[in-house]
Amino acid sequence: MELTLPSGIPSSSTLRRLRNLPQSHTAPFTRIQYPVFPLSPRPMDRPSLTSKSKTPRAAADNGASSISAASPVPAVGGRFGEVKRVTKETNVFAKINLDGTGVADSSTGIPFLDHMLDQLASHGLFDVHVRATGDIHIDDHHTNEDVALAIGTALLQALGDRKGIHRFGDFSAPLDEALIHVALDLSGRPYLGYDLQIPTQRVGTYDTQLVEHFFQSLANTSGMTLHIRQLAGKNSHHIIEATFKAFARALRQATEPDPRRLGTIPRSVFTPNRR
């Protein structure tokens, strides 16, 4: 039985003829090296975007902050505001990035206020950096007030001419039995409408009267119209924390770019002859 060889494979008679050829007619043999691929692809090496030093804690992290921590790489074209406020009672530094990722790095000497600033950063997706020292051996009033004044001023700087933003924001935030609604307008006209019924005088060591004072101070320096309403709630901690969360989300709405605005300032066009 004669076998038919596949195309491209020489027969035995052809091989014998090739062996009898003179050496000068034999082409040199070259070994072909084929690339060897791994069974699974290797990930691409990417340059590190941050230094190897410690970074500020994220908003949800309860670890201790570090003053010497490296700042995260800022977003290209981010909107930043930075202010240092020094009085006889306090020394405050505040920095905010409206286009951040929710990095919280606050140390005010008032633990409950630090916790609330973490909510502002985390739920607003702002990078919030605050350092404050003050006469908290007397009470928290001056430090609480000046931190809010500094954050409001930093926010005003970060907003710039306010071109292309939504300007308005509103949000209702639940926290267990508490439900808080916040509506705001970055109008340049400071006003606070405040209606919280906080049942206890203190949460930990924090005087709950300072919540209203915090938002009044922030509204004054940022030029914000701000309304805060309690729809439900019995637990003082829940009421205050839901307030900061709702405020963060409403502020995030108001500061985010509105693509339909096409970079214009969000205001009504005044026409003198039009009624």
Automatic annotation (TrEMBL):
<dbReference type="GO" id="GO:0009507">
    <property type="term" value="C:chloroplast"/>
</dbReference>
<keyword id="KW-0368">Histidine biosynthesis</keyword>
<dbReference type="InterPro" id="IPR038494">
    <property type="entry name" value="IGPD_sf"/>
</dbReference>
<keyword id="KW-0028">Amino-acid biosynthesis</keyword>
<dbReference type="InterPro" id="IPR000807">
    <property type="entry name" value="ImidazoleglycerolP_deHydtase"/>
</dbReference>
<dbReference type="GO" id="GO:0004424">
    <property type="term" value="F:imidazoleglycerol-phosphate dehydratase activity"/>
</dbReference>
<comment type="similarity">
    <text>Belongs to the imidazoleglycerol-phosphate dehydratase family.</text>
</comment>
<dbReference type="GO" id="GO:0000105">
    <property type="term" value="P:L-histidine biosynthetic process"/>
</dbReference>
<dbReference type="InterPro" id="IPR020565">
    <property type="entry name" value="ImidazoleglycerP_deHydtase_CS"/>
</dbReference>
<protein>
    <recommendedName>
        <fullName>Imidazoleglycerol-phosphate dehydratase</fullName>
        <ecNumber>4.2.1.19</ecNumber>
    </recommendedName>
</protein>
<dbReference type="InterPro" id="IPR020568">
    <property type="entry name" value="Ribosomal_Su5_D2-typ_SF"/>
</dbReference>
<keyword id="KW-0456">Lyase</keyword>
<feature type="region of interest" description="Disordered">
    <location>
        <begin position="255"/>
        <end position="275"/>
    </location>
</feature>
<feature type="region of interest" description="Disordered">
    <location>
        <begin position="36"/>
        <end position="71"/>
    </location>
</feature>
<dbReference type="Pfam" id="PF00475">
    <property type="entry name" value="IGPD"/>
</dbReference>
<comment type="pathway">
    <text>Amino-acid biosynthesis; L-histidine biosynthesis; L-histidine from 5-phospho-alpha-D-ribose 1-diphosphate: step 6/9.</text>
</comment>
